[in-house]
């Protein structure tokens, strides 16, 4: 099969899956037909089918598992953040997406999210997710690696209150893309004891502003927080 | 090979490529070692190598071509927008990322981009790219499909003046994700003659604001433009 034909065979499967998802014929948790059935349906090689399924896997649209149990086969999932984050990270690594631009894009996204979070109709239970993370970070004995992990979850939980799934996905993707730089920075910042005090104070200020529904203040504080951290890190 | 081992084999190749890109050992236009060499280097199966390369392809990090010419083999490229846009589109199709949220995220991104474009240090040549697209859309005889194409390029060219590659990539990805909805909307809007007059007037206003370096006006006009269009389309 020529390269051209192979590309078209593969696109046909992707388009079919996209249309089935859009129409609702294929839903979260559904199983794709087997490799052989798909190959027959599109009159293409099983290698082309495998290629297309692999592409869907990388996009976070399906998960494949071998075996014959109830979890085997190719199942429709929804994993946009890890897929987009992984791709973004590769492009940051290849120096095609400058770290400075990611930090700027993150600032844009998170200030927007917190400004909207402050006025969005969240329930007490929803903001309690962020509060629990905030309070967990107050523990003095926390190793810096654990703090960094909770820190990331705190920012994502607070931004999620804005209720925009795409913005949350973008936030998580960018966070994933710069993950290693953040850990490196946390390690480089030898005076961790001093840094962690500032981080805690910032986090409490940001949380309080969202809880008090002051979107302008929340946006300003998170901007200063990000600029302060990257001013130290980059 | 168990599923677990296969996943680890595959991750090892991805991590190696990421580190090589970061260190500069692997650069844009470079060729990856062959399948067999990689399989030996990581002591994994050639199927695992193929899987990893396929993942890099889907992420827009490499392009594979068969044959033996100067363009054959697996070459490092940089194609983040089409990769991220394709994945986003799949997730929109699966109803996991609501169209309303994409439109809102696009408004956030484009208002930010135009506000920054107005004060960024672009050259006359750079803004002329957007101007040429603007003037091409003034042609009364243009079919709606061509207009829609130029329209997309106009928005991307104007946003690019802000000089943030990540934001431009996000813009293009979101545009790619909602491409079909935009074409559908253009078709549904039976009174195309009337719609196109409004679009032209909006575009000229937005362009003039950026050229006059009035970022606040540019941001406001592009927000109204997007809201007007999607008010009709969704």
Automatic annotation (TrEMBL), chains A, B:
The keyword DNA-binding applies. InterPro entries: GntR_C, TF_FadR/GntR_C, Tscrpt_reg_HTH_GntR, WH-like_DNA-bd_sf, WH_DNA-bd_sf. One of its GO terms (molecular function) is DNA binding. Residues 7-79 form the HTH gntR-type domain. The keyword Transcription regulation applies. Keywords: DNA-binding, Transcription, Transcription regulation. This is DNA-binding FadR family transcriptional regulator. It comes from Pseudarthrobacter enclensis.
């Amino acid at each position: 099969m020529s390269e051209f034909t192979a590309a078209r065979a593969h696109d046909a499967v992707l388009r079919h899956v996209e249309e089935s998802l859009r129409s609702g014929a294929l839903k979260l948790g559904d199983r794709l037909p087997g490799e052989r059935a798909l190959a027959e349906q599109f009159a293409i090689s099983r290698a082309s089918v495998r290629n297309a399924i692999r592409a869907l896997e990388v996009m976070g649209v399906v998960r494949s598992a071998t075996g014959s149990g109830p979890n085997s086969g190719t199942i429709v999932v929804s994993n946009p953040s890890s897929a987009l984050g992984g791709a973004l990270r590769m492009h940051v690594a290849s120096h095609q997406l400058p770290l400075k631009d990611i930090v700027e894009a993150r600032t844009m996204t998170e200030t927007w999210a917190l400004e909207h979070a402050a006025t969005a109709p969240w329930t007490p239970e929803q903001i309690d997710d962020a509060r629990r993370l905030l309070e967990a970070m107050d523990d003095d004995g926390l190793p810096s690696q654990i703090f960094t992990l909770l820190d990331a979850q705190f920012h994502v939980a607070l931004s999620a209150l804005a209720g925009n799934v795409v913005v949350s996905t973008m936030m998580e993707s960018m966070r994933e893309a710069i993950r290693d730089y953040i850990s490196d920075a946390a390690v480089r910042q030898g005076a961790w004891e001093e840094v962690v005090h500032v981080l805690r104070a910032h986090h409490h200020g940001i949380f309080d502003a969202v809880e008090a529904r002051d979107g302008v203040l929340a946006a300003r504080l998170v901007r200063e927080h990000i600029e302060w951290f990257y001013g130290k890190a980059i």
